[in-house]
Design brief:
The complex is a heterodimer of chains A (419) and B (171). With 419 residues, chain A is an alpha/beta fold. In chain A, 32% of the residues lie in helices and 18% in strands. A five-stranded parallel β-sheet of chain A has the order 4-3-2-5-6. Chain A has a five-stranded parallel β-sheet with strand order 16-15-14-17-18. Chain A is globular. Chain B is of the alpha/beta class and 171 residues long. Chain B has one domain: Aconitase, domain 4 (Alpha-Beta Barrel). In chain B, helix 4 links the parallel strand 3 and strand 4. In chain B, helix 4 crosses helix 6. The chains are: A alpha/beta (419), B alpha/beta (171). Chains A and B meet through helix 2, helix 3 and helix 5 of A and helix 4 and helix 7 of B.
Chain lengths: 419, 171
């Protein structure tokens, strides 16, 4: 059995499960964001449920529409606050950042866990060697009522990453390379494991980026085998947590194993309007950038700020370019302030917003006008994602976004000198 | 379960941002509201054109992207009888099953159907047929758990039933 199957089996109270089988599982934690909590609470009532089955498993995070910018959202958030109090849900985070950034930070994600969330990027957590997957609002409402929900045991594809990073190449570029080679449906319904010598050396921040992006290849969950890096991360953040790292029995437990030589990858950009149309940043020619959108559950962690600030230090944004930064979490925001990174980015001309999803939620500050171009370290460049459907979004690494914001057009960060 | 309807054909990698754009998100929806925004990211007039009993045909990876139940719920509300594609985004599949919208996978089906063709689907028998061209294909078997959920009218009905059983046991 693959470790993913073992994790699902344990949460289904079964000795073993087969790939393709549908089983009822009890997750360790379920994340409801502001939208999810409002919709699921409503649907729970419509399903005839008055009580949340296990409120201690539920974590509510306001990240998409926080602080509210429309009155309907403030009304809905007021209702949700009353609802979580009534239901005895005590794990509540408003304005503390994006669910998928704070889950690993606060120790809700840990090796061997099973996590559901009302958002597709819930898969991010799987970097810690757990199974984490997004669900719809009715799905989560049903879980709230019953305390379990169904899951199909996925086949697993493994990407073995070897070689070395070229200068200013990151996990994000690897993800874009996979989208380029194998498409946006590289892994439909599958588990995606990342392994190999390069992953063994990768810090948790980069592992989280890889696993964050698996949903954009169609996957159900990511997976990285827990090691010392994982153990150190969890011990620092949740010292009392008891966890079990499952292991995979053999190479026969994979549907497919793919070798990827990272040494061949250069800084990449997904061009409008889908993730699988990918070009080298250096070859894009003259793409004028009106806005750089920095943050999100893909690119809003402290290492992203370190990389970007190093490039932006002592420089100014191009006169025609604006930059919207939303830290992924309060912890990231504080750390970036302590290290002086926020100073560097604000001095360069960037605007700092609230820890949260920012413009990637589709209705926060930084919406694009028709005809405008944005470059972002988010995960998606879908039409209309950041405002007007007539705007264009380019997806790249934090380094490429920072370098392009300074240049005012898309450039490769590889040649940028750091002061 | 037998479905017969007129088709609307869409392309590859149609994501849920296109099926139900975020600008129309609301914490609660009035009856008919979700349906009034269906597919407006691709065709603003689609909500007025689509009729009850029609079938949506997509290309590869239909419904990829965000975990947006509104995408499937809007189709259900508009009276769409089924959605057919060579492959689907996982979350879209799940959401469709949960709202009781038949989600039918059939290889290369997008190449076999032109907009407006009438098609017939027999979910239990596992066949799909283009009534204009005569094209016919077997459908891969659907997990009985999923088929039961669709026939039940979705996960809300299932949940309601289990809750009632639990209450009866307690009494």
């Amino acid at each position: 059995m693959h470790a993913i199957s073992k994790i699902i089996a344990r949460h289904a109270d079964r000795k073993g499960v087969e790939v393709g089988e549908i089983v009822n599982v009890v997750p360790d934690y379920v994340m409801l964001n502001d939208r999810g909590a409002a919709r699921a609470a409503d649907l729970l009532r419509q399903m005839g449920g008055d009580k949340v089955f296990n409120p201690s498993q539920v974590v509510v995070v306001f990240d998409h529409h926080y602080p509210p910018i429309r009155q309907q959202d403030s009304v809905s958030q007021k209702k949700t606050r009353a609802w979580i109090e009534l239901q005895g849900i005590s794990k509540f985070h408003a304005g503390e950042g994006i669910g998928h950034v704070i889950f690993p930070e606060k120790g809700y994600a840990f090796p061997g866990a099973l996590i559901f969330g009302t958002d597709s990027h819930t898969v991010t957590n799987s970097a810690l060697g757990c199974v984490a997957t997004g669900m719809g609002h009715s799905d989560i409402a049903s879980y709230l009522a019953l305390g379990y929900n169904w899951l199909k045991v996925p086949e697993v594809i493994r990407f073995d990453l070897h070689g070395d990073f070229r200068p200013r190449v990151y996990a994000k570029d690897i993800a874009l390379r996979i989208a380029q080679l194998y498409g946006e449906d590289a892994a439909p319904y599958l588990g995606v494991e990342f392994a190999g010598p390069l992953v063994a050396r990768m810090p948790m921040s980069e592992r989280l980026v890889l696993c964050n992006m698996v949903i954009d290849f169609g996957a159900k969950t990511g997976y990285i085998q827990p090691d010392e890096i994982t153990e150190r991360w969890v011990t620092q953040r949740a010292p009392d947590r008891k966890w079990i790292a499952e292991t995979t029995d053999s190479d026969k437990d994979y549907g497919r194993i793919v070798d990827l030589n990272v040494s061949e990858i250069e800084p990449l950009v997904a061009i409008p309007h889908d993730l699988s149309t990918v070009r080298a940043a250096a070859d894009l020619g003259d793409v004028r950038i009106d806005e750089a959108i920095f943050g999100t559950c893909t690119g809003g962690r402290i290492d992203d700020f370190r990389v970007a600030a190093a490039i932006m230090k002592g420089r100014k944004l191009a006169p025609h370019t604006r930059m919207m930064i939303n830290p992924g979490s309060r912890e990231t925001y504080l750390q970036a302030m302590h290290e002086g990174l926020i100073d560097i980015m604000v001095e360069a001309g960037a605007t700092i917003g609230v820890p949260g999803c920012g413009p990637c939620s589709g209705c926060h500050q930084g919406m694009l006008a028709p005809g405008e171009n944005a470059i972002t370290n988010a995960s998606r460049n879908f039409k209309g994602r950041f405002g007007s459907p007539e705007a264009s979004a380019y997806v790249a690494s934090s380094a490429t976004v920072a370098a392009s914001a300074i240049a005012g057009r898309i450039v490769s960060p590889a040649g940028v000198n750091v002061h | 379960m037998h479905i017969k309807g007129k088709t609307w054909v869409f392309g590859r990698n149609v994501n849920t941002d296109l099926i139900f754009p975020k600008v129309w998100f609301r914490p609660t929806y009035e009856p008919g509201e979700m349906a009034s925004h269906l597919m407006v990211g691709i065709d603003e007039d689609f909500p007025r054109k689509v009729g009850r009993g029609d079938v949506i045909v997509g290309g590869q990876n239909f419904g990829c992207g965000s975990s947006r139940e509104e995408a499937a719920a809007a189709m259900k509300e508009a009276g769409v009888a089924a959605v057919v594609a060579p492959s689907f985004g996982r979350l879209f599949t799940r959401n469709a099953i949960n709202v009781g919208l038949p989600v039918v996978t059939s290889l290369r089906i997008d190449e076999e159907i032109q907009q407006g063709d009438e098609i017939e689907i027999d979910l239990a028998g596992g066949t799909i047929r283009n009534l204009r061209s005569g094209y016919e294909a077997r459908l891969p078997p659907m997990a009985s758990e999923s088929l039961n959920l669709i026939e039940d009218g979705g996960i809300a009905n299932y949940t309601r039933r289990v809750l009632e059983q639990r209450r009866r046991v307690q009494v």
